[in-house]
Amino acid sequence: MKMTDYTTLAGLLFVLCVPGALSDNLCDDGWLPYGSNCYKFDTTKRVSVASAQAECSNLGANLLRIHSSDELTWITTTAKASFPSAGFWTDLNDNPKTSLTKLGTGKWQWGMFETVDMSLLQWGTSPVNDGVANCAGMNILGTLSDLNCLSLQGFICKLPGQSGCPLGWLSYGTACYWISDTTNATRLLSWNDAKLWCADPSRSNANGAQLMSVADQNDLSMADSPEQCCWY
């Protein structure tokens, strides 16, 4: 078949893929990706740690927990550049676990039970064990302060990211593929139109997509199906 035929004939089906590996991290609007996690900075509100925890929980997230020096550097760099604030809550605390303990435990941890690597963190001044300043806030330099949990600060929520393909795409091997709807005659496209459709991120829901080229065995296996006919 000549190329002129390809540009005018309506295809029965077309396939496109996102070049390269699966997306490392997909975060919802309003969240910033770093590593395998998503972060939501809210430094415009000033709330207690309980209110901050509730807001993060409603989003399926936790208050900020730091697990590496690189993560801390990214947090402080991002906060200084885009979210200036006097400070924000973390999930670090030494709250007593029973009503019989009136003072703070002196043992700081993330949330209720997660052990914290204190070598990653730096206190402005050594925390007091007075039973009042049982929650930890952090400034944009990454320095911690022990505070009354009823104090008011901004906060950062942290949520594990979603690795994989955009919604509606198929994961196969190390790539993502979109298969068009062949049951709807209005969705059948010429080769040129299919190519343009793939490249339009507002319609294909992915950046950098293109009509599939058979680059490896995964692509060949995806295309080599007797009941499918596709542009690629």
TrEMBL record:
CDD domains: CLECT. SUPFAM superfamilies: C-type lectin-like. It comes from the Eukaryota. It holds the Pfam family Lectin_C. Gene3D superfamilies: Mannose-Binding Protein A, subunit A. Residues 1-23 form the signal peptide. Residues 34-158 form the C-type lectin domain. Keywords: Signal. This is C-type lectin domain-containing protein. InterPro entries: C-type_lectin-like, C-type_lectin-like/link_sf, C-type_lectin/snaclec_domain, CTDL_fold. It comes from Dreissena polymorpha.
